[in-house]
Amino acid sequence: MSALALGRWASRFKILHSQATLFRTSSSTYFFTSSTANKSEDPVRPEPPPIRVSLTESAGRGVFATRRIGAGDLIHTARPLVAHPLLSTTHSVCYFCLRKLKATSQTQAIQFCSNECEEQSMGFYNVERRANWSDYDNYCRMHGLKYPLLVKRLACMVISGVAAADSFDILQPESLSPVMVSEMEEGFNLLRGAFTKANICDEQVAFLTKTWYTSVLARIRINAFRVELAGGLYEDLLTSAAASVEAEAAVGNAVYMLPSFYNHDCDPNAHILWIENADARLKVLRDVEAGEELRICYIDASMDRDARQTLLSQGFGFQCNCFRCSSGD
Predict the structure, then answer these.
(1) Phi, psi for 105 (deg, rounded to 5)
(2) pLDDT digit string (tens) for 126-178?
């Protein structure tokens, strides 16, 4: 990714959205300070930044520690750029933040956990509720698809003016074969058709071409996270991770900016988790020294080597050469 593209991203998102502050020091290295860092008495001089985004030798961009980070420490938090509940959880979680609802309504298909979430959702929901999404949802349900729902939400945000059409350009895209692009055409036609039937003017949906649809979907497919809520206040990282698995707590999917820069390792030193909503928390699993790359595991690390390699190749398009895989574990 070019320095110009990184610069555009920095100015657009300012990373404050993910509760961190960005400092540019060179054309290829970006520093961040965590929202959990101690506040300096001197407001002009920030605390030493705990992480930087920089190019790696073999895996593109990566996230590196700029100082020692202790096991269990919170690195940073991140709010999603876009999130959407699973079709199976739409009636049981907040339509904006994916928090599980204490009570569900038999008459309201869409609910929010608070007035704040309802207000923030207007960035997409005022557009979304103008259209009939039954055909689009049925298409996703029939084919077992979840990521087109994120494309729909982003498209609504672009139409309403709260997001730019090129918001996801900074993210690494999946390499799509002609067959894969062809298979996406039905989803594109249904999405475009829903807006047309809702009388959304052509000028507002001019960005929504097949190229845009496939480009966004290619980025979402390898950058989206499955949001699994641990629930409760778990101070112990392993306990919270286990709780989310045991509860089968997947509630939706989300795309983040900074977490998308973390590379994979089958024996990771960092972990992403969700407690009560789609706001992500990045923590370290063991002591990390300054200059060390922070890596998370994209899949279930308990699988055997062959299963991990297959899933990473098919789902993320790369062969893992981490120490664990190289040693045959």
Answers:
(1) -105, 140
(2) 999 999 999 999 999 999 999 999 999 999 999 999 999 999 999 999 889 99
Could you give the angle at the alpha carbon of 53 between the alpha carbons of 296 and 301, nearest 5°? 5
Place of tokens 């907040």: 94
C-alpha separations of 20 from 13, 195, 324 in Å: 11, 36, 32
What are the pLDDT digits (tens) for 207-228?
999 999 999 999 999 999 999 9
DSSP result, 171-211: SPPP---HHHHHHTHHHHHHHHHHHHHTT--TTTTTT--HH
Tokens 């977490």 — which residue? 259
Structure tokens belonging to residue 93: 């979680």
Contact (CB, 8 A) for 288 and 294? yes
Geometric angle at alpha carbon 141, from 136 and 145, rounded to 5°: 90
- How far apart (Å, rounded) are the C-alpha atoms in residues 296 and 237? 13
Distance separating alpha carbons of residues 3 and 146, to the nearest angstrom? 32
Determine which of 65-69, 201-205, 214-218, 247-251 has the lowest per-residue pLDDT on average. 247-251
Handedness of CA 300, 302, 303, 306 (dihedral sign): positive
pLDDT of 1 higher than 50: no
CB 262 within 8 A of CB 221: no
The 10s digit of each residue's pLDDT in 283-309 is 999 999 999 999 999 988 899 999 999
User: Residue 262 has what DSSP assignment?
Assistant: P
3 state SS of 20: strand
Q: What pTM value is reported for the model?
A: 0.82
